[in-house]
Design goal:
The chain is mainly β and about 90 residues long. It contains one helix and eight strands; from the N terminus they run ββββαββββ.
Amino acid sequence: MTVRITAKQGGFRRCGIAHSAVATTYPADSLTSAELKRLQAEPMLVVELLDQLATSQWYHVAATRRAGWVRVFANGVNTAETYKPGTTV
């Protein structure tokens, strides 16, 4: 699994990292579980947990949109989410 983090304001700092307004991907093992929880709880950051899908395998993929939140599910597991107010999917 990888973690993609985007700051709503470039240079925003949390957990000793200056986060960019451009999405940055980190290996999940580069963050402790406590750091990941802190980052996910921070309203100034968009934190997405990304699973890599294998080739030659079927997946059930669905997306939902509610109150500006767009969520993607693979095999019933929320694999990514982002907040996009005022947009259509």
